[in-house]
Amino acid sequence: MSSPTSTPGGRKRNRNDIPATPGSIGSTSPPSQRRRGQDSSNADLPAMPTSPATDIASPTVHDTSLFSSPRRSVLPSEVDMSSPLMYGTPSSRVEGTPRSGARGTPARQRPDLGSVRKAPQVDLHSDADGAVASEPSVGQKLVIWGTDVNVGTCKEKFQRFLQRFIDPTSNEDENAGLDLNEPLYMQKLEEISVVGEPVLNVNCGHVQSFDADLYRQLICYPQEVIPTFDMAVNELFFERFPDSILEHQIQVRPYNALKTRNMRSLNPEDIDQMITISGMVIRTSQLIPEMQEAFFQCQVCAFSTRVEVDRGRIAEPAVCRHCNTTHSLALIHNRSAFSDKQMIKVQESPDDMPAGQTPHTTVVYAHNDLVDKVQPGDRINITDVVPLSLLNPTTGIYRAVPMRENPRQSNVKSVYKTHIDAIHFRKTDEKRLHGLDEEADQKLFTEERVKTLKELAAKPDVYERLSSALAPSIYEHEDIKKGILLQLFGGTRKDFSQTGRGNFRAEVNILLCGDPGTSKSQLLQYVFNLVPRGQYTSGKGSSAVGLTAYVMKDPETKQLVLQTGALVLSDNGICCIDEFDKMSESTRSVLHEVMEQQTLSIAKAGIICQLNARTSVLAAANPVESQWNPKKTTIENIQLPHTLLSRFDLIFLMLDPQDEAYDRRLAHHLVSLYYQSEEQIEEELLDMAVLKDYIAYARTYINPRLNEEASQALIEAYVDMRKIGSGRGMVSAYPRQLESLIRLAEAHAKVRFSDKVETIDVEEAKRLHREALKQSATDPRTGFVDISILTTGMSATARKRKEEVAQALKKMIQSKGKTPAMKYQQLFDDLRGQSEAAITKDMFEEALRALADEDYLTVTGKTVRLL
Amino acid sequence: MPSSNDWINNPLGVVEEMFVQSNSNPEWEAKVLEYFKGKLKEKQAYSWIPSLNDVPLHYLKPNSLVKFRCLVQDMFDPEFYMGVYETIDPSTKAKVLRFGKYKDVTECGVDLNSRNTVTAERQTFYCVPIPGETLWAKETYARSSQARVVPSTSYIPSRQKRSYEEDDEMDTQPQKQREPHTELHANGDSKRQETEAPSGQTTSPSNASSPLDLNFPLPGERGPACLVKVYEDLDSFKLNDMLEVYGILSVNPLLSVLCEEKDPSASLLDPTESMETPEEQRAHDPPASLVPRLHMLHARPLQHNNPLLPSDRAEDQHAFVSSFMVEMASVRAEFLAYLTHILLGDGLAAEYLLLHLISSVYARRDVLPLGKFTLNLSGCPPNSSFTESLHQVIQELVPCTYRLSMTLHNMNSLRLVPRKDYVANRLVSGALQLARNTSLVLDETRLEQGQLDASGVQNITALGNLISWQKVDYDFNYHQMEFPCNINVFVTSEGRSLLPSDCQVPLQPQVTPPNLEEYLSTVHKAQLTSQINKFRVYLSVAQTLDYSISDEVTKAVEDDFVDMRKDDPQSVSAEDLHRMLVVARLLSLSLGQTSLSREGWMRAKHIDMLRRTRSQPQTTVNGNEP
């Protein structure tokens, strides 16, 4: 530690160590820089005591090195002055040494590490007794003042971490294309040397698993430790890639600090610690050029000096040191140094808020290249954010009229202003919109919770338990609840894009139809409240645009912005659509793509894109005649296009069962609602939380696959389904039904927390599917289950009947002989008279249309002409 | 009460004393709370403290203990403040430890680098007087207060003193409800009339001289808004809670000066200055003269806002309720007769109105609110002031109420749902941000044909959600947040309402007075105040009673239901049973019975049947779900 130049962080030991005291600084630039380094010590670190590069850098070398900075094209002699303060990164030290690869690389200051914190440290320093720091001779034992961080050890540890850390289980997409069995961060360094983006993102989880002590230090003293990391990385980097040219030195950006804080639980103890909080960006400010260093020039003798910003203020020198003229110094803006800064307001994400309170907001400052990384509306894990800096309460110093006796003193508002300096942002949104197959929000579960969940899963009747816990206030409808439960869990996502098929739908879609007043809406509301990313819309009130996405021009920036609608917003969730039947035709049509391909294509205002909408649809429809007509098919009752209906895996009817035992149970259930005590209700509320976690856990961690038996069972089931209809000459199952079965079986396996889909899962899927079909696809005329009702919109018998009527009509017309034209009404009456079965007008018209299609006749107005 | 003067007039002195005694032992904070809680427990102690609600701000002594009956309208972000700090006397260099709790501004000469500084956390709630509080409630509260407030000598209560701005507003604002004997009271209130900027139109934020928007939920409200600084139990408070806050009033003019004094050019250099927009400044740091600060020492959550009921202690209340119970049945009969007169002699409608007035959401089963009873009174004469008069009657009966005239213009332009304004960083209130058990009268007779625009549709949807689920989805721009509520909605309409309702009663007037208004006012005037007071107590008591159903009656109800279904399954649905159970519950409670009897159930069935036969021709068409 012989050289003060190389140890700008001299404050850590003792001021008196440094031979050049501020007062002695002359007009030569290197010492002034030295002084700067020392005063602005907070961001600085003491150089590694063992550093061999202790020779004083010659000023010229230094200057040129800085001159190469592409960012600052100022006169060479000024460059070093305008360069941001440094904290002993290699460039200041390494140059002149044999391995001076870093020579061309300027350091870049890190305002994110809080230059505002400067003052307290200097002041603490003035408490001379705080000499925890030892003599330089102690060497390795040296720690940074106020912490237990030893720079040398810390650096060594981190270098070891970089060189050795291997994470074979890593599945982060950031590490895509890296060899998992090689040291991860060395590969990343290599990447940096190729790409030239001097930022190294370090996962704190990795640091923790590698060296818990280092991790603790990182969390507790980020302002000291991160620069040390920077130093370590740069040394390592330039040792490895001496020839690479970077814009500035590599900066370490730790992220994923495990000490994740809910915005709500931030408290004074977190100040100056590294934390990770998540939230939503609600507002970003304009770019703020923050002055780092002011350049003053004497109007008399042109002597120039620089003053660093201190606690957000610049002390204007009153006297020119050169010519001793007072008040002759003027600020030269062009030659002052600025850094980019942006204020970002982040609001607590709605998921982790207690009910009945409003979300909190926090101010985050982004610096340099983090500026403009996020936009309002983004959900971010403002990962890793350093210190919740306490700003000095100098904000509102009251100077004018004194309230106190002593006018020179000031009253201060006793409130601090807090903010967070961001080191790293991580968008959670991005993945949802464009990502592959990643559950974006990984909900963290405590071990206890996982244990209780697993215990629950081990119970043989877990399926029944869960389904009965679902919407307990809604009575019975067990199968519907089971169906919805399976929908909540969803199937396993499969990717067939390599074989050209693309993603397979894993989401289960369910349609509920039935009489009004059978608590369909209530069920929908319940589901909407249960799932984290649910959307609730009503068919009446939503338009196609509201469901999908629309392009909007931001009035301020004239930038086109894509606003997402309900379907996109419920990606990975459930979109509940009430009054499905009242939706307009055009609105419904967008659902076709969503419900099978799980994407939304948008081509509007020059934006052409495909958004993911991997949402399950839970829809409720009322019959057209307000009462369900049991004599009609499902299609006829709800008047929905069969193309859409066939995309629902399960279609349930919610009808009044109208039987006495049911009525009795229903009455009991309802009456009990009205006198149960609060505690009983509480108990069930607890259940809802468990259910939520259970579903979240299963969705995140369980990915069941079919085993051999199960696939056999599925094949059999499918073949059976096909067989049923073949006897009567109709198709009773399509591949879509097989896919539904698979999804349901997988979902059922998820309910059991099983990684294998087994026969019992298939059995339940079959049963449920059959139940639903029985309800919705029974042909009211024959009493048979007929899938073609749902797939083609018409039962096979109905089709047959239609043909018969047409034939009868044709025969009748032929029997009348050669009459080129007939009265419509008369023909109808004749046909009715002839036929044994009652013929409605609809049927007659259909028959006419069928004959017209054969080019046998045409209908014009009230007359029918033969061709 | 000379002994109490100290803790009321100079609470900070008491705190100071305890702080000094404690010798920087952190326990002093708990001690302070203990002390004030103990003081407040003393008999009548509550009434000795002046209330911000009925004493004009300029009459109150700064730094004295005051109380404020309010609704938590918005919760601001937590802030860190100097809990304990050290000051240095510049001449003697003596260091003194001081406390920053319960204060906005520090003493002189803070040593910013002292090691003894303790940073603590507190939160600010933006509180407004309870929206829709009726005149009688306000007056009764004011009368019960025994605080003798001596107007400060410098204040001369003359109208000339008022600024021209206030005067303008005085003239333009129609003040129908002010009666002569409330003149003084109303005067005090109107002092701070720069209240709600006309809702719906956003005042241009750049216009710094525009009157401060105090963000009241309902238009035309007045009274002081208050920034309440909360120190303890931050999590126990919820938005829209009704509180009676006891705290130290801080109107330090320094606060305003600190804000205004800011040098705009400094904002570039000082990062802390650029953090807040001017709008945010105005919203969060309004001048203390308009929005006083209140440092909370104690807060009492209000279960009801009825000044006629004892609110202090649970035992008191219990005794009161049980003594009133004997009277219940007779008061009910009188009340029913009164309502029958009001509803033009329609006894059934009066019965239902009574049930509606005592309904309250008492529990929620998953998403389903239990106990709500939205009443739709159809067949109201259109284009008359019937609903208005009806509302005036309700105003005399319940502590909080609001009439929303559902004109097309109102629906399209009013802001019903509170919305987060991210520029000013506050929750802009809407008319549906109401306290619990507020009676909301929707006047659908005013609705005419025409086009609803986007916001109109949203407003109607919000009303529908409120009625069906008793929740309001606050608009947070990027997402919505659901806030459960407990609002009694009463819809008057000509035909069946377009809004969903739990129960629809067509009005069948038995008398047709030539002049409706005159008739109603004479009916109203015929009631003695003491009687009206009884009704008021009756409503609040019935609302708070507990209720149960015995197994035996459960069985009977079940049988009944099964029987009804047997005859005609279409006639009774699960929804009907739901409604009948609510009716049975309310009917029992209205008679002061806390458990359902067989007779009660039969009665409920009977009146529901009467109602159904009456509305039969109207209900068949629109059978779709809400």
Highlighted features:
heterodimer; A: 867 residues; alpha/beta; mini-chromosome maintenance (MCM) complex, chain A, domain 1; OB fold (Dihydrolipoamide Acetyltransferase, E2P); Rossmann fold; 29 helices; 37% helix; disordered N terminus; B: 626 residues; five-stranded parallel sheet; 18% strand; elongated
This entry's quaternary arrangement is: heterodimer
Q: Helicity range of the residues of chain A?
A: 25-40%
What's the gyration radius of chain A in Å? 37 Å
The strand count of chain A comes to: 27
Mean pLDDT of chain A: 66
- Outline the low-pLDDT stretches of chain B: 152-209, 259-274, 618-626
Protein structure class of chain B: alpha/beta
EC number (chain A): 3.6.4.12
GO molecular function (chain A): ATP binding; ATP hydrolysis activity; chromatin binding; single-stranded DNA binding; single-stranded DNA helicase activity
Subcellular location (chain A): Nucleus
Protein name (chain A): DNA replication licensing factor MCM4
Characterization of this structure:
- The complex is a heterodimer of chains A (867) and B (626).
- In chain A, 37% of the residues lie in helices and 17% in strands.
- In chain A, helix 2 crosses helix 3 and helix 8 packs across helix 9.
- Chain A is elongated and about 125 Å long.
- Chain A is of the alpha/beta class and 867 residues long.
- Among the domains of chain A are: 105 residues, mini-chromosome maintenance (MCM) complex, chain A, domain 1; 155 residues, OB fold (Dihydrolipoamide Acetyltransferase, E2P); 241 residues, Rossmann fold, CATH 3.40.50.300; 73 residues, Winged helix-like DNA-binding domain superfamily/Winged helix DNA-binding domain (Arc Repressor Mutant, subunit A), CATH 1.10.10.
- By secondary structure, chain B is of the alpha/beta class.
- Chain B is 38% helix and 18% strand.
- Chain B contains 20 helices and 19 strands.
- In chain B, the strands form six sheets. A five-stranded mixed barrel of chain B has the order 1-3-4-6-5. A five-stranded parallel β-sheet of chain B has the order 10-13-16-9-17.
- In chain B, helix 11 packs across helix 17, helix 13 packs parallel to helix 16 and helix 19 packs across helix 20.
- Chain B starts with a helix and ends in a 7-residue tail after the last helix.
- The C terminus of chain B is likely disordered.
- Classes of the chains: A alpha/beta (867), B alpha/beta (626).
- At the A-B interface, helix 5, strand 3, strand 6, strand 7 and strand 9 of A face strand 1, strand 3, helix 8, strand 7 and helix 15 of B.
- Strand 9 of chain A pairs antiparallel with strand 1 of chain B, so a sheet runs across the interface.
